[in-house]
Every structure is written in structure tokens, then in C-alpha cells.
Design brief:
- The structure holds two protein chains of two kinds.
- Chain A is an alpha/beta fold.
- Chain A has one domain (2-200): Rossmann fold (3-Layer(aba) Sandwich).
- Chain A has helices spanning 12-21, 50-60, 62-72, 81-84, 187-200; strands at residues 2-5, 26-29, 41-44, 76-79, 89-90, 95-96, 103-105, 117-125, 139-145, 150-151, 157-162, 166-172, 176-179.
- The mean pLDDT of chain A is 94.
- By secondary structure, chain B is α/β, with parallel strands linked by helices.
- In chain B, a hairpin with a 5-residue loop joins strand 7 and strand 8.
- In chain B, helix 1 packs parallel to helix 3.
- Chain B has a single domain (5-250), classed as Alpha-Beta Barrel (TIM Barrel).
- Chain B is globular and about 50 Å long.
- Chain B has helices spanning 32-41, 52-57, 64-72, 86-95, 104-108, 111-120, 159-169, 190-199, 213-221, 232-235, 241-250; strands at 5-13, 16-21, 24-30, 47-51, 77-80, 99-102, 125-135, 141-148, 153-158, 173-178, 204-207, 227-230.
- Helix content of chain B is 37%, strand content 29%.
- The longest helix of chain B is centred in the middle third of the chain and has 11 residues, at 159-169.
- At the A-B interface, helix 1, strand 8, strand 9 and helix 5 of A face loops of B.
- Chain A: It is found in: Cytoplasm.
- Chain A: GO terms for molecular function: glutaminase activity; imidazoleglycerol-phosphate synthase activity; lyase activity.
- Chain A: Pathway: Amino-acid biosynthesis; L-histidine biosynthesis; L-histidine from 5-phospho-alpha-D-ribose 1-diphosphate: step 5/9.
Chain lengths: 205, 257
């Protein structure tokens, strides 16, 4: 069962539908009490503002729930804003985030490009992570964001994208991972990536 | 690098996808979700649905067909037509739309853009902008003016000034339709699209006038558009999206293949 964290994120239902269509059972988690042992993997979706999202996660107790689950080894996939929240801090509202990965989330400052970075752009597979299984290298995914993840450890950069500068578009490790783009809106390879998370991520003992 | 987008526009009337001939005589061409799915498989980068029921008949927006689109289409889609309030934004986004377009309502009350952007973010606020050129005595274009109500009402507003004001308020993208080019199949208003692309810092979707592959190439190269809207070119079976993209790719335009 795939637990999807429900904190009012705009793309929650498209993520939910995509996962359900792949044939996985899903459960919405709006508070820690919604959890039961059938939930083995978690997805943190997200569209919107980092400060607002963290406030909701903190007030609802979902931050503590996520921290507890991650410490137990439950695999977690963050999508878009949900990915940015995996890092330690975000410049968007100067907010402390979940801190599962070391690094921060600065704002794009590229004079030659329009902000937000919106549309289809290529993702280069940096390390052969299982999220990229059966996805050709440099496949396009759909992005919408004005801030970007900046992990401190190079090993946490799983995929890279060029938008006036190279930035980390896929980050994480075997257990906690995040994608800056919207797999649920990126056609068949986006759906493939979601399937890869559900299929290949394993509970870390 | 960011790709140039090809965006099919689908007119919707009473929950059905329709084709208009000169803005009249709608004929049903299928189900909005089925058609969207077909275009997605064919390589569309994004879809725009124009709900003509709401805007023409002044009815409330129907959302059942939007839910069906959201269930079947795995690329982003916008819904435009008849949106008047933040409550309309909420209903359409909840139904599954990724972006919501406003046109006349934003002209009547520009604050709507700010209100929607503050709650839902600029990325889902699209400004629909209908433009008509104003000529001097020598038949040279001196500026473009904003029209509303599907091109029936003249506002007297300058297109560039309105686009700048709207993006400052909260529009994250602009679909610019040149009324005098729409349906003529003799090319986009490249001059206007170029002007807007240079004057505002949000993506510009060029709309109105595409009839040939060269027109799309031109609006990307000379017009500096971020995306090109296509409608009759694909609805009538003249071209497929695959053919459009192959052509552009061969012309070294950065499209997603």
C-alpha cells in the first residue's frame, strides 16, 4: 500500500490517480493516526509555497510522522515542492524543512531565462538510480518551479537538468528520494518513474 | 534546455469536444478526454480546453468532463472560459485542471489575478489575451488593443501595458490570440508575439493563424514564443502533432520528440 501525504497539495489527486492506475493500492494520510502497517511506502506531493507547506506539516503532526517513518526505513518519494521539503532549509519563506537530505533550496536567479522554469526539460541520469529503470537517459519531464534543490553531498544528486545552469532535478538515496518535475504530468515516462518507485524501493532495515 | 511547446486547443460545448467553423456551427468531434488522450499519445506537450458553453451562454462551469480529462490525460492541461471568481479557480483546480485561464473577468477586475496567484501560485494563473492591431493613416500598425468577450468588445487598453500589469498582479503565462489572424490560416501575428515576448517575463503561448508548418517555425524563431497553440491544423487531419514536431526538429527548433 502506497501512503500519499495529504496536506492540501494541489497535485495530490493526479498523483493518487496515477498510482492507482498502475494497480497499486493507495491510502491518503492526513494525520499520523491514518497510518497502519499496510502502508509500506510514502509519497509527499506538493505544489505551492514551502513555508505554507511546512507550517501545515508541522501543525498537523505530519512532519513528526514522516521523520518517524523515515527513521524506521520506510521509502519516501517527494514530488516538486515535496522534493524540496526533503532538504534542511528553503529560501522560500526562509523555513526549516524536513532535513532528510543535507542541503538547501535557493531561488533561481538566471537573467537569461524566464522564471518559473515551466515546461518540458531533459533529465540526465547521474548515477543509474532505480528510479530511472526503463527510462532512456535525457528523457523530458514536466517542470514548474522557481526554487531548486541544492544538496551538499554530490552522491545525493541522482539526476541533473540544464536551465541556464545545471541543477539537481532528482535527489536522494536508496530510501529517501525526490524529483523536482511532475512525474504525474510527464506522460508515459513519468508514470514509469512512479512505477519504479513503487516497484523497486525497499524498506531499509 | 527548455523545450518549445506544441499545445493543441480543444473547444468544449456541453461536455463535448467541438469544432467551430468561423465561430459558428459547432460540430461534435468527440469526447474531450478521449481527444486529449489521443493528442497526448501523439506528442502534445500540454492541452488547452476552451469551455465555450460557459463563456457563450453565461452558465456556470461544468466540471464533470474536466474530471474525466484529469483521469485520462497525463500531461498538464489548462481550462479557459467563463472563469469569473477565485471560487471558479478552486473548482477547476480541484477537478484536476493544472492551470486556469481568465480573460474578460481579469479585464473587468484585475485583482482576480492577484487573488488567484496568492492562493494557488502564479504557475496556474493563465491570462487569455485577445488582441487587435490599430493602424495609422498609412495602414501601419501603431499598437495593439485588448478585446474581450470572445473578441466582441473593445476595451481601449494597450496590449503590452495590460500584459505587464497582469503579470505583475499574478499571471504566470499568457495565451495571446490575434483576433484578425484567428481562423485565417495565414500565420500567427509574429510581430505582436515578439513584442510581448520581449516585454514580459512569463511564457507566451501564440494563438491564432497557424495553417502551415512554416507558421509554427516562424513564431518560435522570429516571434520568440515559448509555445504555439494549434487547433484547426490538427483537428481537420491536415497534420498530426508528430508531423509538426518532426518538421520543427529538422529545422533545429528545440522540441520534445
Amino acid at each position: 500500500m502506497i501512503g500519499i501525504i495529504d496536506y492540501g497539495a494541489g497535485n495530490l489527486h493526479s498523483v493518487l490517480k496515477a498510482i492507482a492506475r498502475l494497480g497499486y493500492e493507495t491510502k491518503l494520510i492526513t494525520k499520523a493516526e491514518d497510518h497502519d502497517d499496510s502502508v509500506t511506502k510514502l509519497i509527499l506531493p506538493g505544489v505551492g509555497n514551502a513555508k505554507v507547506a511546512m507550517d501545515v506539516l508541522n501543525e498537523s503532526g505530519l512532519s513528526d510522522y514522516l521523520k518517524e517513518q523515515v527513521s524506521k526505513g520506510t521509502p519516501l518519494l517527494g514530488i516538486c515542492l515535496g522534493m524540496q521539503l526533503l532538504l534542511e532549509t528553503s529560501e522560500e519563506g526562509n523555513v526549516e524543512c524536513l532535513g532528510f537530505l543535507k542541503g538547501s533550496v535557493p531561488e533561481f536567479k538566471i537573467e537569461t531565462e524566464k522564471i518559473p522554469h515551466m515546461g518540458w526539460n531533459q533529465v540526465k541520469d547521474a548515477q543509474g538510480h532505480f528510479l530511472f529503470t526503463d527510462i532512456p537517459n535525457n528523457t523530458d519531464f514536466y517542470f514548474v518551479h522557481s526554487y531548486f534543490a541544492q544538496p551538499i553531498n554530490e552522491k545525493d544528486v541522482l539526476g541533473e537538468t540544464d536551465y541556464g545552469q545545471n541543477f539537481a532535478s532528482v535527489i536522494g538515496n536508496e530510501q529517501v528520494m525526490g524529483v523536482q518535475f511532475h512525474p504525474e504530468k510527464s506522460g508515459k515516462f513519468g508514470i514509469q518513474l512512479l512505477d519504479n518507485f513503487c516497484k523497486y524501493s525497499l524498506i531499509k532495515e | 534546455m527548455l523545450r518549445k511547446r506544441i499545445v493543441p486547443a480543444i473547444d468544449v460545448l456541453n461536455d463535448q469536444a467541438v469544432k467551430y467553423v468561423q465561430f459558428r456551427n459547432p460540430t461534435i468531434i468527440g469526447d474531450p478526454a478521449e481527444l486529449g488522450k489521443k493528442y497526448t499519445e501523439d506528442g502534445a506537450d500540454e492541452l488547452i480546453y476552451l469551455d465555450t458553453t460557459a463563456s457563450l451562454k453565461n452558465q456556470d462551469l461544468k466540471i464533470e468532463w474536466i474530471r474525466k480529462v484529469a483521469e485520462q490525460v497525463y500531461i498538464p492541461f489548462s481550462v479557459i472560459g467563463g472563469v469569473r471568481t477565485v471560487e471558479d479557480f478552486k473548482r477547476l483546480l480541484r477537478a484536476g485542471a493544472d492551470k486556469v485561464g481568465v480573460n474578460s473577468a481579469a479585464v473587468q477586475r484585475p485583482e482576480l489575478l492577484r487573488e488567484a496567484a496568492e492562493i494557488y501560485g502564479k504557475q496556474c494563473v493563465v491570462l487569455g489575451l485577445d488582441a487587435m492591431p490599430i493602424y495609422n493613416d498609412d495602414q501601419e500598425i501603431i499598437r495593439w488593443e485588448v478585446y474581450t468577450h470572445s473578441g466582441h468588445e473593445k476595451t481601449g487598453m494597450d496590449v503590452v501595458e495590460w500584459a505587464q500589469q497582469a503579470t505583475e498582479l499574478g499571471a504566470g503565462e499568457i495565451i495571446c490570440t490575434s483576433i484578425h489572424k484567428d481562423g485565417m490560416k495565414n500565420g500567427y501575428d509574429v510581430e505582436l508575439i515578439k513584442l510581448l515576448s520581449e516585454k514580459v517575463n512569463v511564457p507566451i503561448i501564440a494563438s491564432g493563424g497557424a495553417g502551415k508548418l512554416e507558421h509554427i517555425e516562424e513564431v518560435f524563431t522570429e516571434g520568440k514564443a515559448d509555445a504555439a497553440l494549434v487547433a484547426s491544423m490538427i483537428h481537420y487531419g491536415d497534420y498530426t502533432i508528430g508531423e509538426i514536431k518532426s518538421y520543427l526538429h529538422n529545422k533545429d527548433i528545440n522540441v520534445r520528440m
